[in-house]
Specification:
globular; signal; mainly beta; cell wall
Length: 414
């Protein structure tokens, strides 16, 4: 079976020519390490997402602008914070930590105090204990730089869906210099609401809350996050720049619906590394309008694999450029390396996609490329579209790097 898989991979390499692989891999390798990525900083979100007139259409990872060391400053300020910076303890602002009282208001009060702090960096501290917390929004801009959220407790979501006017549990937004750390746990308590997820049958379904949504953040470090049993996605990275997530543990049962580990959209310069993710959906899903994404040393399983897409479902979606998925292990999963695009009228590109050194065990579809995602085949002939395209000179599966241990596996192109 391994020989047959190798043959099919060679055929795929002929279809998805690897002209770009040496050049792109070299530039990506330059910044694969977390320390290197932390040395790179970027303009504000609004500045970066406006492409200057005459600028090249793509920004390769090897040509990122060198404009300072903001994230290194964040690292240095963590020490300053622990040596006397301002610490804002939720239990000092009314949190009961009894696992029964909703501490959402106390969390919000604590955040406002920390965000308004004018004396250097600030730490929002959740000490040991069990906290029941409804939906909260931690919004900036903040006067503190950086501002750290350190969770040492067990934070459990309230499970009355009517409380969630917006489909997020923790919404963290509009901040420059944000750090999420700590050995505590965010428990979405999804098991109580998963039976109400009927989105596969009901197009007007109510989306279940995302555990943590990061929106419009610049220079962010997520280090040591533990998230279990989210109602919907565990994490959603939206409109962020220079975002590093490392040492994460994200867990949900294999049959939990739509519990993606980390979903990215409209974000640039994102690194996900040294993490264990096992869910009922994609471990990592790289969505539309993303550029310069690196996923390394991630163990994925169970779940639906490491995915690019789905792309092309909605009219405002933009292309995906420069994605490196390297040194990852996938096991007990329905899919391994996956690219999925809708058969729609929306045009765009998925370009510079590299999966390299991926080890798979008991994976049903080690490589799956689906360009009619979400479409019944009998209806496909009725669709007139340009569609999202895989640019054949910029996508590759590195043949020599695949070690697929799955006698029942198959490679699927749809």
């Amino acid at each position: 079976m391994t020989r047959n898989l190798s043959l099919v991979i060679q055929i795929l390499l002929l279809v998805f020519a690897s002209q770009c692989s040496a050049k792109v891999a070299a530039t990506l390798d330059d910044v694969t390490g977390t320390e290197n990525l932390l040395k790179v900083t970027v303009p504000t979100v609004n500045e970066q997402f406006l492409r200057p007139a005459g600028a090249p259409r793509r920004l390769g990872i090897g040509t990122l602008p060198d404009i300072g060391s903001t994230v290194n400053d964040i690292r240095e300020n963590i020490v300053l914070n622990e040596n006397g910076g301002s610490v804002f303890d939720v239990t000092k602002h009314g949190a009961k930590a009894d696992g029964e009282t909703d501490d959402a208001q106390a969390f919000m009060t604590t955040w406002i105090a920390a965000c308004r702090n004018t004396v250097g960096p600030a730490k929002f501290l959740i000490p040991q204990g069990t906290y029941l917390v409804g939906p909260v929004t931690f919004a900036g801009p903040c006067k503190s730089f950086p501002i750290t959220l350190e969770n040492q407790g067990t934070v459990k979501a309230t499970t009355d869906i009517s409380e969630y006017s917006s489909p997020e549990w923790f919404s963290i937004e509009d901040i420059t210099g944000f750090i999420l750390t700590g050995s505590g746990v965010f428990d979405g308590q999804g098991v109580t609401v998963w039976p109400y997820n009927d989105c596969k049958k009901n197009r007007f379904c109510q989306l279940l809350p995302i555990s943590i949504k990061f929106s419009r953040l610049n220079h962010t470090i997520v280090d040591g996050l533990t998230s279990v049993n989210s109602m919907g996605f565990h994490t959603f990275v939206f409109y962020c720049y220079n975002f590093t997530a490392t040492n994460m543990k994200i867990i949900a049962p294999h049959n939990s619906p739509n519990t993606d580990g980390m979903y990215l959209s409209t974000s640039k310069l994102v690194t996900i590394t040294n993490s264990v993710i096992g869910t009922g959906d994609d471990c990592v899903s790289i969505g539309h309008s993303t550029e310069n994404i690196v996923v390394t040393n991630v163990t994925c399983g169970p779940g639906h694999g490491l995915s690019v897409g789905s792309l092309g479902k909605y009219s405002k979606e933009k292309s995906v450029y420069n994605v490196l998925v390297k040194n990852c292990t996938i096991f007990n999963a329905t899919n391994g390396a996956r690219i999925k695009t809708w058969a729609s009228r929306i045009s765009g590109l998925a370009s510079g996609i590299i999966f390299e050194d991926i080890v798979m065990y008991n994976v049903k579809n080690p490589i799956i490329i689906d360009q009619t995602y979400g479409t019944k085949k009998k209806k496909l002939q009725l669709i007139l579209h340009a569609g999202f395209k895989l640019e054949d000179q910029r996508c590759s599966f590195q043949e020599h790097s695949w070690d697929i241990n799955n006698e029942r596996g198959s490679i699927v192109g749809v």
